[in-house]
Structures are given as structure tokens and as C-alpha cells.
TrEMBL record:
Pfam families: EPSP_synthase. This is UDP-N-acetylglucosamine 1-carboxyvinyltransferase. GO terms for cellular component: cytoplasm. Residues 7-428 form the Enolpyruvate transferase domain. UDP-N-acetyl-alpha-D-glucosamine binds at residues 97, 311, 333. The keyword Transferase applies. It catalyses: phosphoenolpyruvate + UDP-N-acetyl-alpha-D-glucosamine = UDP-N-acetyl-3-O-(1-carboxyvinyl)-alpha-D-glucosamine + phosphate.
């Protein structure tokens, strides 16, 4: 159903678009509203499917959600939080992994929580073992049943010492959302410190939480008895910003992204410059452009913050197909995030994937049969093709490839892109792209 996009590519994308709140912050901040005794207001909320999914999940749990889409303002009233049926949660959550983050807040509010089997993008196994271990450490009893997972808190959850084997974003958020109302102090070591997590900490602090971020990825949370609602303006989406920047590079264009902010983009901007892209940081955004001439090949490794984000990798790889020489990309966050390169090969790119850790240090996926390194040889002109979107970021990369390729491409499954890119078709048109929904 309108899940096709015909793309007439080969022309540079030029113009100005605006990004709003970060998908990977907004959804978590919405969950945080469950912890407050009074209503919360979240501003700068983009119209993306993940916001709809989380609104629906909150609604199922008795939260009164009002969303002014144009103004981007969400009002969340958790006065009547209640249990929801796992089948309804399952039906509503679709492929989202957000339900796992409802557990801590629901255990505090109701003493129990149910979650279905979890999805998310097809970019690896994406287990939830860290989450369940953390919840057990707080004192939750976890019961795996055929239709999902049932959790209960026989007594108030207790602060604890948690050490993450890997700085997982979700597991750090799980700890924060659970520890703030637990009894006593929680010390989390090996935490993720992504800007979206810092913004979540800011929200929780506004609600009354006591959280300190220490050196060496240690976060300390002092549990409190009561939290209030918050009013907050979401930080902007640095993944969407990088996606448009990569689109400018791959199509030889010039895109100003209003709302893009430099501090969260530093690592990306360094890489963008090394590839040969030009940028200018303005008061209200960042302009990205291809200055003409050859793009340069690079060696790149994805990592947790402050490293190069895994979500920036896929769009940038499309631009790397246009760089001269051999680029090496080592994906160290997900074991299986190069599936999208099949379509790029079909379009004429020369990309080989390897099981070895190429281009830097050994990572936890080495010697384990995961194709997690890629060598991109360029420049190769891309030709139009019929391609299927594999996941959110891979899907946007396919779009970029189709826009860079001469002729008409058919991109299937673009509904997945709506999960995280607000009004992307309008934005493409504003940048001069010739696209038509099928
Ligand atoms: N992991 C485990 N066990 C767990 C949880 C994670 O082994 O219980 C592993 C994962 O399999 C992965 C690594 O730890 O290899 C990192 O996963 P993390 O928990 O950090 O990822 P996430 O919280 O599930 C969020 C974003 C992703 C983004 C990653 C990394 C949301 C909703 N999702 O996922 O965003 O790639 O952090 O920054 O915030 C996207 O936006 O397209 C997207 C996939």
C-alpha cells in the first residue's frame, strides 16, 4: 500500500530542509512520562511512525496522549496508568523494541509488566539479555511465557551495582528508567553516553531524579520516592542530519539542514571532511555540500559515542562508492549491518564484505563468522534498479543510491523509512528530487 517509491535519479539534491527531535531520544522520553505523578510536555516531536507506535503503547497503558503534529508538541498525562494485554501490545508494537523500556516504569507503577517478543531493524540478533539481567538485578522476577515475558516486582525494586559487558544504549536507558524510582543507589559502569542518553538524563533530572555522570562511563543514580512530569524540548536528530549530508555528497549536491547542531555531529563532520565533503556550521543549522573534484577513500570504524555512530555508516557508504580508491568500513556495533550493500552491488557498486576485523582493532565480532567489515572500491557510477528496503537506515541508503543513479529506480518497502524520517518525500521534493509514490 503506497509502499513503493519511483525515483528518477542522477541529479544533485540542492536546497534546505529541517530536522526535528531525535527519534532515539523522543521515544525514550515519552516512556519516561510514565514515571511522573503529573503530566509531561515534550516539544520538537517529529511526525514519524515510532512516535505513533509509542503513543499507542502509552495509550494502551492508560496514558492520555495528545499530539499537536504541526507544533510538534506532545502532552502526556499518566494519571491513570494501567496494565495492558500482551496481545494488544504485540499488535501495536510491530517491529519496535520500545516495549522493553516500559518494564521499569510499569514495575514501579503497577508491580508488573508484560512484553511481547521484540523486533527492531533486521541488523543483527538484537537480543534483550542485558535488559532482563538488569531488571532481575533490581529484584524483578522474570517469567518467560509462550506469548511473551511477564515481569513482576514482589517488593519495591532495589538499587544495585550493574556492570554492562558492552555500552548498550538500550541497557543504559533501562537502568536509568528503573533506578530513578528504585530504593537506594544504583551504580552503572560501562554505560553508554550518547547525546540522546544525556538528554534523557536531563529529562529525568527535571522530573526530580538525582543522577550523576562520572568519568569512565560510570553513572550513579540515587532513587527517589516521587517524580513529577517534565517540560522539555527534544534534541535534534543527528542521524537524520548525517543521512542528508551523505545524500548531498553522493548526489554531488548542496543541502542545508536547519536544526542540525555541531557538538553532536563532531565525529561525523571530521569524517565528512576527510572524504572531501564541505560543510559550514550556521547559527540555525549546517550546510553540507560536494565541492566538485574527487572524493577520497577512507578507513572507518563504527563505535559507541563519541565514536562514529553505526547509524551514520549506511548512508555514508553510498557516498563512499563515489570516492576514489579503497575505503574500509569496520562495523563494531552490530554484527550484521551490511545487508543493504547487496542492493548497492546490484546498482553497480563494488563492495566486498569480510568476516575479519579490517581497518583497525579487533572487535567482539571477529572470528565469529559475521560479515562485519566492508571494502568499497570506487568510484563506480550507480545505475537504476528495483530494490527492496531492508531496514530503516539501510532503506534511506537505498534511497540515496537511487537518487544518485541515472534513470528510474523502484524502491520497495519504503514504509520502513517512515519509522524515523519525518516527511521524507516532501523533503526530497524540496531538494529537487523526482520521486513518485507507487
Ligand atoms: N545487545 C545485546 N544484548 C542486549 C542489548 C544489546 O547483546 O540486551 C547488543 C546489540 O545486539 C548490539 C549492541 O549491544 O550489538 C548495541 O545495542 P544497543 O543496545 O546499544 O542498541 P539499541 O538500544 O537496541 C539504539 C538505537 C539504534 C542504534 C543503537 C546504537 C533506539 C530505538 N535504537 O538501539 O538505532 O543503532 O542504539 O546507537 O534508540 C536506528 O535508529 O535505526 C537504530 C537501529
Amino acid at each position: 500500500m503506497n509502499d513503493l517509491l519511483y525515483v528518477n535519479g542522477g541529479n544533485p539534491l540542492n536546497g534546505t530542509i529541517t530536522v526535528r527531535g531525535a527519534k532515539n531520544f523522543v521515544s525514550k522520553s515519552m516512556v519516561a512520562s510514565l514515571l511522573g505523578e503529573t503530566p509531561s510536555v515534550l516539544r520538537n516531536v517529529p511526525q514519524i511512525r515510532d512516535v505513533k507506535v509509542v503513543s499507542g503503547l502509552l495509550d494502551l497503558h492508560g496514558v492520555n496522549v495528545k499530539y499537536d503534529t504541526d507544533a510538534g508538541i506532545l502532552d502526556l498525562d499518566p494519571s491513570n496508568v494501567e496494565s495492558a494485554h500482551v496481545a494488544d501490545i504485540d499488535a501495536h508494537a510491530g517491529s519496535s523494541r520500545i516495549p522493553i523500556l516500559f518494564c521499569g516504569p510499569l514495575l514501579h507503577r503497577l508491580g508488573e509488566a508484560f512484553i511481547p517478543d521484540l523486533g527492531g531493524c533486521r541488523i543483527g540478533d538484537r537480543p534483550i539479555n542485558y535488559h532482563l539481567d538488569i531488571l532481575r538485578q533490581f529484584g524483578a522476577v522474570v517469567d518467560k511465557r509462550p506469548n511473551g515475558i511477564h515481569l513482576r516486582a514482589p517488593r519495591r525494586l532495589q538499587g544495585t551495582k550493574i556492570s554492562l559487558p558492552y555500552p548498550s544504549v538500550g541497557a543504559t536507558e533501562q537502568t536509568l528508567l528503573t533506578a530513578v524510582r528504585a530504593d537506594g543507589i544504583t551504580e552503572l559502569s560501562g554505560a553508554a553516553i550518547e547525546p540522546e542518553i544525556m538528554d534523557l538524563i536531563a529529562v529525568l533530572q527535571k522530573m526530580g531524579a538525582i543522577i550523576s555522570v562520572d568519568t569512565d562511563r560510570v553513572i550513579r543514580i540515587e532513587g527517589v520516592d516521587r517524580l513529577e512530569g517534565y517540560t522539555h524540548t527534544a534534541l535534534n536528530d543527528r542521524i537524520e542530519t548525517a543521512s542528508w549530508a551523505s545524500a548531498a555528497l553522493a548526489t554531488g549536491g548542496d543541502i542545508t539542514v536547519k536544526g542540525a547542531t555541531q557538538p553532536e555531529m563532531m565525529t561525523f563532520l571530521n569524517t565528512f571532511r576527510k572524504v572531501g565533503g564541505r560543510f559550514e556550521v550556521q547559527d540555525d543549522g549546517i550546510r553540507f555540500w560536494h565541492a566538485g573534484g574527487d572524493l577520497k577513500s577512507i578507513v572507518l570504524e563504527t563505535d559507541v559515542h563519541p565514536g562514529f555512530m553505526t547509524d551514520w555508516q549506511q548512508p555514508l557508504v553510498v557516498a563512499l562508492t563515489q570516492a576514489t580508491g579503497l575505503s574500509i568500513v569496520h562495523e563494531t556495533v552490530y554484527e550484521n549491518r551490511f545487508g543493504f550493500t547487496d542492493a548497492l552491488r546490484k546498482m553497480g557498486a563494488t563492495i566486498q564484505v569480510y568476516k575479519e576485523c579490517l581497518g583497525g582493532r579487533d572487535c567482539r565480532f571477529g572470528q565469529r563468522n559475521f560479515h562485519h567489515s566492508a571494502v568499497v572500491s570506487g568510484p563506480t557510477p550507480l545505475s537504476a534498479a528495483d530494490i527492496e528496503v531492508p531496514d530503516l537506515r539501510g532503506g534511506f541508503s537505498h534511497l540515496i543510491a537511487a537518487l544518485a543513479a541515472k534513470g528510474q529506480s523502484t524502491v520497495r518497502g519504503i514504509g520502513l523509512i517512515d519509522r524515523g524520517y519525518e516527511n521524507f518525500q516532501d523533503k526530497l521534493e524540496a531538494l529537487g528530487a523526482e520521486v513518485v509514490r507507487g
